[in-house]
Design goal:
Length: 282
Amino acid sequence: MITARDMTAAELAALLHFHAEAGVEWLVEDAPVDRQAAFSAEKQARQRPAAAAAPGTAPAPERRRPEAPQPAPRPAAAIAIPDEHAVTEARFAAESARTLDELRTAVEAFGGCNLKTSARSTVFAAGDPAAGVMVIGPMPSADDDREGAAFSGKAGFLLDRMLAAIGLSRETVLLSTVIPWRPPGDRPPSAPEAAICRPFVERQIELAEPKAVLLLGNFTARFFFGGTGTIHALRGEWREIACGSHAVPAIATLHPQELLTAPASKALAWADLQAFRARLGG
């Protein structure tokens, strides 16, 4: 008899093709196999260990896979204060301060603005509160957040030169920012964030009682003057900003960072600085 082992692959393929055409659906082995007897033997083999157990003894407990350790519960996230409530709380905290030192403490303790959670420092006004001159920028930069002071880094160095050109310095003005906390990635503050911070910066102006305010940058000019104009449309013109019971004259100019990226605009900033110096009385 020729077995399958003695046949080539082509012969096997031809044989299978012949069986398929003949209607063969099952292939059998050379020796018969009793499948029912094999199944009965396997069933008896599985039942034998249970029958061998002593009567009255409890079966061995089933082994269970150890459960994976449950992760520790996360601490509850801080409850976000709705914007309108945060504005009310900010206004109450600002109006309760009677001095700039008290206002600094109130700002540092305030937790109603989400910007504080991602910032490293709270940047507050610094300089001479009695100088009668305020310089206000938009929001802290990465350098400001790291140093904890407004106008740090290259932009701050350029501002020092700008002030020196009109006979001023950090020590003879009060430097501040509209927003006391740096937004993530230096993005512009949202409208609700700006509304929450407004009572604090307006209270700074009210307590310092400056004779004139220099506003730096597009965001700062829009914040106090309103509208959607660019700094080139808002700069160089004196306007009054109302802070509590005070109306203070203010003029806007380009931010030092804008002058670093566009040096050709320095001539415009110089004209604004001269107007500011003239308003202060020479």
